[in-house]
Amino acid sequence: QVSLVESGGGLVQAGGSLRLSCAASGRTLSTSDVGWYRQAPGKEREFVAGIKISSSETYADSVKGRFTISRDNAQNAVYLQMNSLKPEDTATYYCTVNNYPRAPDWGQGTQVTVSS
Asked: What Cα–Cα distance (Å) separates residue 44 from each residue in 1, 8, 41, 49, 115?
C-alpha cells in the first residue's frame, strides 16, 4: 500500500511558473518509475512527464522545453517544475507510481489554473 500526495498547484498568469510535488509514503520512489499526468474538465487524463528508476526522463510534446521532472530521494519525492505556463496547461495534475505487474498508484491531484 502506497500513499501519494500532490501539492504546489495554484493560479498563475500565462508565462508564470509552478513547482508541483509528489510526496510518497509506503514505498521508496527511487525504486519506481514515476509519472505526472493531467486531466482537464471533460477530457481524458494525459501523460505529462515521467522519470524512470534509471532517472531517464520523458515528456509529452506539449510540455517539452517547459517542464522538468526530477527526484529527491532524500525526501522520497518527485517534482514537476513547470515554466512558461500556458492556459492550455490548466488541469488537475496527478502523480502516479508504477507497481507493475499490479495497477499503478495515484494521488488525489493538485489543481493548476493558468489565466490568459
From this structure: 26, 22, 8, 16, 21
pLDDT at 18 over 90: yes
Residue 97 CA to residue 19 CA, distance in Å, equals 18
Q: Are 49 and 70 in contact (CB under 8 A)?
A: no
At residue 52, what is the residue type?
Answer: K
Question: Which band of pLDDT confidence, cut at 50, 70 and 90, is reported for residue 1?
Answer: low
Sorted by sequence, the CB contacts under 8 Å of residue 74 that are 6+ apart come out as: none
Provide Rg for the chain, Cα atoms.
13
Q: Which residues pair with 96 in a beta bridge?
A: 35, 106
Asked if the model's pLDDT at residue 87 lies above 90, the reply is: yes
Which are the contacts of 55, defined by CB distance < 8 A and separation ≥ 6? 71
